[in-house]
Fold this sequence. Notes:
By secondary structure, the chain is mainly beta. It has one domain. The protein is built from 1 helix and 8 strands, in the order ββαββββββ. Strands 1, 2, 3, 4, 5, 6, 7 and 8 form an 8-stranded antiparallel sheet that branches. The chain has one helix at residues 28-31; strands spanning 3-10, 13-23, 34-35, 48-64, 68-82, 87-103, 107-120, 139-145.
Amino acid sequence: MPIPVTEVWRPDLRHGAAFSRDPILDTQLSFAGLRDEGSASASYVGNTWGGVISNAGEAGLNFGDGRAGWYVQGGGQYITGRHILENKRIDGDGGAYWAAWHHPEYGNLTAGMNFFGMHYERNLRHFTYGQGDTSGPARTCSPQFR
């Protein structure tokens, strides 16, 4: 559950921050962990790994009203779990929007664009022992238009 902190400087300018500590729910390995049956013996249950936790923080700033605006946000995560390598992630996004059309009976049409980027320190996307399935490619960039 994120802990948000938000403040309004002016009616059209806001900034905020959030901090959280949550499990990564992407796969069974990252959420609950797995056990290697091949390493089990009569006296040993086998190697276990996974159960990944993300300690995260983010901050953002946005400016605008119903007609136009922009926003920027950045954050980071420290990712750890049972018998996996620790990992770090940074990410950010920014964008702008404009009211393109307004009709009282049918509603509004808003156009905008967004750019998102993220980077993991290590690529731990595999399901093998010591990896936690906690990232995709080392770097990701995604422009979006609406």
